[in-house]
């Protein structure tokens, strides 16, 4: 088995775990927005709460990345590259946290999506079927 194949398998597992976290986050967002609606909290306030929580999670990832260190005893060039990579990732995470904190409109769009999904899930009203052939089996007499 080549290293490339092993790396692809590991990365596939990472992507699967990330996908699971994204799915769970979407479900949690819907629950927050539903609870908000049930107690009369304005959609704007729910958006602010959720975006602050999500931005905080990204900021936590930023802290984890920023506090990482190269392996002990690494060569100077490796350490320089390590810290350049950490700075690049930390900058991206900061941009993502800022963007996430500013997101608005999710509560309203989630409420609309949920209403549409409920509408699609509810049984359609029954209407009497039109019988193209009159009783007795004769057409157009």
Structural commentary:
It is elongated and about 65 Å long. It has one domain. It is built from 4 helices and no strands. With 141 residues, it is mainly α. The longest helix has 37 residues, at 3-39.
Computed CA radius of gyration, to the nearest angstrom:
27 Å
Main sheet attributes: strand count, strand direction, barrel closure: none
**DSSP, total strands:** 0
Task: Give the N-to-C terminal Cα separation.
Answer: 78 Å
Q: Structural class, judged by helices and strands?
A: mainly alpha
**DSSP helical segment count:** 4
Q: Domains counted in the coordinates: how many?
A: 1
Helix content: over 70%
SSE string, helix = H, strand = E? HHHH
Percent of residues in β-strands:
under 5%
Give the overall average pLDDT. 82
Low-confidence stretches: 133-141
Quick one: overall form? elongated
Lay out the secondary structure:
Elements: H1 3-39, H2 43-66, H3 76-102, H4 106-121
Helix pairs in contact: 1-2, 1-4, 2-3
Describe this structure in a few short sentences.
By secondary structure, the protein is mainly α.
Keywords:
single chain; 141 residues; mainly alpha; 4 helices; disordered C terminus
